[in-house]
Design a protein that fits this description.
CATH architecture of the largest domain in chain B: Up-down Bundle
Number of strands of chain A: 16
Number of strands of chain B: 4
Distance between the termini of chain B: 34 Å
Structural class of chain B: alpha+beta
Distance between the termini of chain A: 26 Å
CATH class of the largest domain in chain B: Mainly Alpha
Largest sheet of chain A: 7 strands, mixed
CATH class of the largest domain in chain A: Alpha Beta
CATH superfamily of the largest domain in chain B: Multidrug efflux transporter AcrB transmembrane domain
Number of helices of chain B: 9
Helix content of chain A: 40-55%
Strand order of the largest sheet of chain A: 6-8-7-13-12-5-9
Strand order of the largest sheet of chain B: 2-3-1-4
Strand content of chain A: 15-25%
Structural class of chain A: alpha+beta
Oligomer: heterodimer
Radius of gyration of chain A: 35 Å
CATH topology of the largest domain in chain B: Multidrug efflux transporter AcrB transmembrane fold
CATH topology of the largest domain in chain A: Gyrase A, domain 2
Chain lengths: 534, 318
C-alpha cells in the first residue's frame, strides 16, 4: 500500500506541474507571475533571420591570440550595431572554438537591411582621386594588358568580339586578314564606359565582370603603382543605374580611426545636392587638425570618401575645412543614412566578416506553418483518439487520456525549460501522439492474450503490465538514443524536433506505465471486477 | 473489437519471397541512385540558394508572373542555372520557388540579387512586406560540414543501437536490427531518388526518426522472440519465431496504423515546409513495419539455423 501512496504522490506532482505550465496556453489573462515562463516560437514559426558569420583571416597575418581578440571585438561591434538597429530579442552567439558568430533576429521586417548592417567592415577612408594624366596612363596600361591577354578572361568575350564582327562587315568578302588583327584594343575602356558613351561609368550588366577583373592579381599589377580602382556607391532608388568608377591614390589620407562620431542630418536646401538626408562626420581633435591641413593644401583636388572600398562621394575641395566636419551627401534614403551612421559609430571590424549561411523565414510562411501544424495535430489526434475508443472501448479511453496528458506534458516541459517550439518540433509532437498509444497498445494486447489464456481479470492486468514493461522500456530507450543523437548533431529546428520527441517518449512512458496502471488499479480495487472493457 | 484473432500466418516460410521483394526494391533504388550519381542533395549539403517568394498581384489588373519571365529576368542579371517552380499557396497566393546551387564565395549574395531583380522587374506583383517567404543561402563550406555531421549522426545512432541491443539481447539481435534499419533507409533514400526529391537536413532527421520508429517495432518482436525461445525449448527456431511474429502482429499493425494516421495527417495538412519530411516518415512507417515482420525476424531464423547446424543442437531446422 505504501508504494501506491508514493505512486499517487508522484502522479499528483507531475500532473500539477504539467497543468501549471500548460494552462497559460489555453487560459488568457492569468496573473503575470504565472506567465513569466513562455514557450518561445522558433524563427521558422514567427518569422525572422538566422545569419552565420565568419571572421575572415585569409589575408591577415595575425597570431592566434590576435585572432581570438579580433573575433571578440567583431562580436562586440556587431552586437552594438544590432542593438542600435533595434530588433526585439536578438540572439548573438559566438560558436565556441571557431571564428564564427551566429545571429538570430526574430520577427524582422526587412532582413536585407540587417544583413547589410552586419556584413559591413565599416572601414572608412579618405583618398585622393588621381589626376587626368594618371587616369589616362592607367587606361592605356590596362587596355594594352587586356588586348594582349584577352584569352585569359573568357568572361570578357562580349568586348573582345564586338569589334571583330564590325570589321568583318567592313571588309566584306575579304577573308584574308587573320582574326587577331581585329582584336579590340580598348577592352577596358569599353567595359568602363556607359552605353550612352560617358566614360568612367560601368553599366549594371557589366558590373560583375569588372569586379571579377579587379580581383584578378595579374590585372591589378597593371594598374600604375600607387593607384587603385574603386567603384562608386549604388543608388538605392535605382540600383540598376550605371555606377561610377574612380581611379584613386591607394594611400588613405585619413581613416575612420580619426572619427569622433557620425550623425544623420536632413538637408533643407533646394538643389538636389543640398536636399534630403546626409551624413555628417565629426572628427576627433587630432583628426580635425589633420583634415584641416589636408584640405588646406589640396584645394581644387577631389577627395573621395570610401567605406568598405566603395566610393560614396568624391567632392572637389573648395576651401580649407577648419571645423573637422565632413558631409557625405548623395542620393540617400533616410534608412540608408541611419544604417551607415550605426556602422560608423560602432567602429570598424578588425577583419572582414563573411556571411556563410543565411536562413530567413517571412512572417506569412511562419503563420501558415503554425496554422498547418495545429491543423495536422488536431486532425491526427482526433482520429487516433476515436480509433482507440473504437478498438479498445473504455481501456481505449484511458489510452486517450494518456495521449492528452502526454501532449500537455510536452508543452509544459518545453515551457518550463523556456524552450523554443519549431515546425519540426510540432512534427515531433504529432509523431508522439501516434507513438504514445504504442505503450498502451502493447499493454492491452498482452492483457487480451492473458484473458484469452483464461487468466482472471486481476491477474491478466497485473501480468500484462509487468510483462509489457520490459518491452516498452527496450523499445523506447532505443528511440531515445536516436533522439539524443539527433539533438547532438542537429541545428536549430532539428534540435527542436529531437527535444519534443525525447520529452514525448518520457511522457508517454509515464502516462501509460504509471498513470494508466494507477487508474486500472483503482478500478480493480474499488470494484471486484470479473469483466474488463478492452 | 479485434482486427485479428489468433493468427497463424506463415511469415517465416515465405521469407524467401519477402527477401526477394526487398532486394528488388532496394536494387531499383540503387540503380536510380547510380544513374543520378548519388542522392539529390539539397542546398543544406551542396551550398546554394533556395527561396520561396510571394508574387501574388498587388495592383489591380496585374498579370500573373510567368516562370519564363522570371528565368529571363534572372538570366539577364547573371543568375543562371536557377531552378524555378510555381507552387500554389493557400488563398490563391502565387508562390514561386527559386533554387540554385551556384553560390560562389558568398561575397556577392545571390539571394539579394534575385530579390533586387524581382522587385525591379515585377513591381506589380511585389508587396515588400510579404515578398520573402523563405530565403536560404548556404555557403559551400557549411554544406560540406553539415554533410559530415549528418553522416556522423547516422553512424553514432546505429552504433548506439547495436550496443544497446547487444547489452539487452545478444550481439546478433543488434546486427540484425541494424541490417533491417539499413534496409529501411536504403528503400526510403531510393524512393526519394526515384521521385527526384531532395535529401535535406530535415530529411536526414526524418531518416533517423524512421530508424527509431522501425527499431521500436523490431524490438517488440525481438522481445517476444527472446521470451518464446525460452518458453518453447523443443520447437524449431522457425516455428517459434513465426509464432512470436503472429503473437505481436496485432500490436504491430495497431501501432503502425495510429502512427500512420498522424503522419498522414502531417503530410496532408502540415503545410509546405514539412511536406517532404512527412513524406519520408510516411514511407518509413510502412517500410519499418514491413521490415520488422519480413526482414529482421526472418534474418534471426537464418542466423539461428546456421548456428544450430554448427553447434549441432537438437533443434531441428524447419
Amino acid at each position: 500500500m505504501k508504494n501506491r501512496k508514493i505512486r499517487g504522490l508522484i502522479i499528483l506532482v507531475v500532473l500539477l506541474v504539467t497543468a501549471y505550465y500548460f494552462l497559460p496556453m489555453i487560459v488568457p489573462n492569468l496573473p503575470s507571475f504565472w506567465t513569466s515562463k513562455r514557450l518561445k516560437l522558433g524563427l521558422d514559426l514567427q518569422g525572422g533571420s538566422q545569419i552565420q558569420l565568419e571572421v575572415d583571416f585569409t589575408d591577415s597575418e595575425l597570431s592566434e591570440k590576435e585572432k581570438e581578440d579580433a573575433v571578440k571585438t567583431a562580436y562586440q561591434i556587431i552586437r552594438n550595431r544590432i542593438d542600435q538597429f533595434g530588433v526585439a530579442e536578438p540572439l548573438i552567439q559566438r560558436v565556441a572554438n571557431t571564428n564564427r558568430i551566429i545571429i538570430q533576429l526574430p520577427g524582422l521586417k526587412e532582413p536585407g537591411r540587417a544583413k547589410d548592417l552586419i556584413g559591413k567592415t565599416a572601414l572608412l577612408e579618405f583618398k585622393f582621386v588621381a589626376n587626368n594624366e594618371q587616369i589616362q596612363e592607367s587606361y592605356e596600361s590596362l587596355d594594352k594588358f587586356l588586348q594582349e591577354n584577352f584569352e585569359k578572361y573568357e568572361f570578357l568575350a562580349d568586348f573582345t568580339e564586338t569589334l571583330e564582327e564590325e570589321e568583318v562587315i567592313d571588309v566584306l568578302g575579304t577573308d584574308t586578314e587573320s582574326e587577331d588583327e581585329y582584336q579590340n584594343s580598348m577592352i577596358f575602356t569599353d567595359l568602363t564606359t556607359s552605353e550612352t558613351g560617358i566614360p568612367l561609368k560601368v553599366e549594371f550588366n557589366n558590373l560583375a565582370k569588372l569586379k571579377k577583373l579587379l580581383q584578378d592579381p595579374d590585372f591589378a599589377q597593371n594598374i600604375p603603382a600607387g593607384l587603385q580602382i574603386a567603384i562608386g556607391k549604388e543608388v538605392k532608388k535605382d540600383p540598376y543605374a550605371a555606377r561610377d568608377i574612380y581611379i584613386l591614390h591607394n594611400k588613405p589620407e585619413i581613416t575612420g580611426k580619426s572619427l569622433d562620431k557620425a550623425l544623420t542630418k536632413i538637408g533643407q536646401g533646394y538643389t538636389a545636392k543640398d536636399k534630403g538626408p546626409y551624413i555628417l562626420l565629426e572628427f576627433k581633435k587630432s583628426g580635425a587638425k589633420k583634415f584641416k591641413n589636408i584640405t588646406g593644401q589640396n584645394i581644387g583636388e577631389r577627395l573621395a570618401i570610401i567605406l568598405d572600398d566603395i566610393v560614396f562621394i568624391a567632392p572637389t575641395i573648395e576651401s580649407r575645412i577648419p571645423d573637422g566636419q565632413a558631409r557625405i551627401t548623395g542620393n540617400f534614403t533616410i534608412e540608408e543614412c541611419n544604417d551607415l551612421v550605426i556602422v560608423l559609430n560602432a567602429g570598424s571590424l578588425p577583419a572582414p566578416v563573411n556571411i556563410i549561411e543565411e536562413r530567413t523565414v517571412g512572417p506569412t510562411l511562419g503563420s501558415d506553418s503554425i496554422r498547418a501544424g495545429i491543423m495536422a495535430a488536431m486532425i491526427g489526434m482526433i482520429v487516433v483518439i476515436l480509433f482507440m475508443i473504437f478498438y479498445y472501448k473504455l481501456s481505449g479511453l484511458l489510452a486517450d487520456l494518456a495521449v492528452i496528458v502526454n501532449v500537455a506534458f510536452i508543452v509544459a516541459v518545453m515551457t518550463m525549460l523556456e524552450g523554443t517550439l519549431t515546425m519540426p518540433g510540432i512534427a515531433g509532437m504529432i509523431l508522439t501522439i501516434g507513438m504514445a498509444v504504442d505503450a498502451n497498445v502493447i499493454i492491452f494486447e498482452r492483457i487480451r492474450e492473458y484473458l484469452d489464456a483464461g487468466k482472471t481479470v486481476r491477474s491478466a492486468v497485473d501480468s500484462g503490465f509487468s510483462r509489457a514493461l520490459v518491452t516498452i522500456l527496450d523499445a523506447n530507450i532505443t528511440t531515445l538514443i536516436t533522439a539524443l543523437v539527433l539533438y547532438q548533431f542537429g541545428t536549430g529546428p532539428i534540435k527542436g524536433f529531437a527535444v519534443t520527441l525525447s520529452i514525448g517518449i518520457v511522457g508517454s512512458m509515464f502516462a501509460s506505465i504509471v498513470l494508466v496502471k494507477a487508474i486500472f488499479d483503482g478500478i480493480m480495487t474499488n470494484t471486484a471486477k470479473d469483466k474488463i472493457s478492452i | 473489437m479485434r482486427f485479428f484473432g489468433k493468427t497463424k500466418i506463415d511469415f517465416i516460410g515465405k521469407r524467401r519471397i519477402a527477401f526477394a521483394i526487398s532486394i528488388a526494391v532496394i536494387l531499383t533504388g540503387i540503380v536510380s541512385l547510380l544513374i543520378n550519381a548519388g542522392p539529390k542533395y539539397s542546398i543544406d549539403f551542396t551550398g546554394g540558394v533556395s527561396m520561396e517568394l510571394d508574387l501574388t498581384p498587388v495592383k489591380e489588373g496585374a498579370d500573373v508572373v510567368k516562370v519564363q519571365d522570371i528565368r529571363d529576368a534572372l538570366t539577364n542579371a547573371g543568375v543562371t542555372e536557377a531552378e524555378i517552380q510555381e507552387i500554389r499557396g493557400s488563398e490563391g497566393k502565387q508562390l514561386v520557388l527559386i533554387k540554385t546551387k551556384a553560390v560562389g564565395d558568398m561575397k556577392d549574395k545571390i539571394s539579394t540579387k534575385v530579390i533586387d531583380v524581382i522587385k525591379k522587374q515585377f513591381p506589380d506583383n511585389v508587396d515588400p512586406a510579404t515578398l520573402i517567404r523563405l530565403q536560404e543561402e548556404v555557403g559551400p563550406k557549411i554544406g560540406e560540414e553539415l554533410k559530415g555531421k549528418a553522416i556522423l549522426a547516422i553512424f553514432w545512432a546505429l552504433l548506439g543501437i547495436i550496443i544497446y541491443i547487444w547489452w539487452r539481447f545478444e550481439f546478433t539481435f543488434g546486427l540484425t536490427a541494424v541490417a533491417a534499419l539499413f534496409h529501411d533507409i536504403l528503400i526510403t533514400v531510393g524512393i526519394f531518388s526515384l521521385l527526384g526529391k531532395e535529401i535535406s537536413l530535415s530529411i536526414v532527421a526524418a531518416l533517423l526518426t524512421i530508424v527509431g520508429y522501425s527499431l521500436n517495432d523490431t524490438i517488440v518482436v525481438f522481445d517476444r522472440i527472446r521470451e518464446d525461445l525460452k518458453l518453447f525449448r523443443k520447437e524449431p527456431y522457425g516455428s517459434v519465431i513465426n509464432h512470436s511474429i503472429n503473437e505481436t502482429l496485432s500490436r504491430t499493425i495497431i501501432t503502425s496504423l495510429t502512427t500512420f494516421i498522424v503522419v498522414l495527417s502531417l503530410y496532408l495538412f502540415g503545410g509546405t515546409v514539412i511536406h517532404d519530411f512527412a513524406f519520408a516518415l510516411l514511407v518509413g512507417v510502412i517500410v519499418g513495419t514491413y521490415s520488422s515482420i519480413f526482414v529482421a525476424s526472418p534474418l534471426m531464423v537464418e542466423h539461428f539455423n546456421k548456428k544450430a547446424k554448427r553447434v549441432g543442437t537438437n533443434r531441428r531446422k524447419k
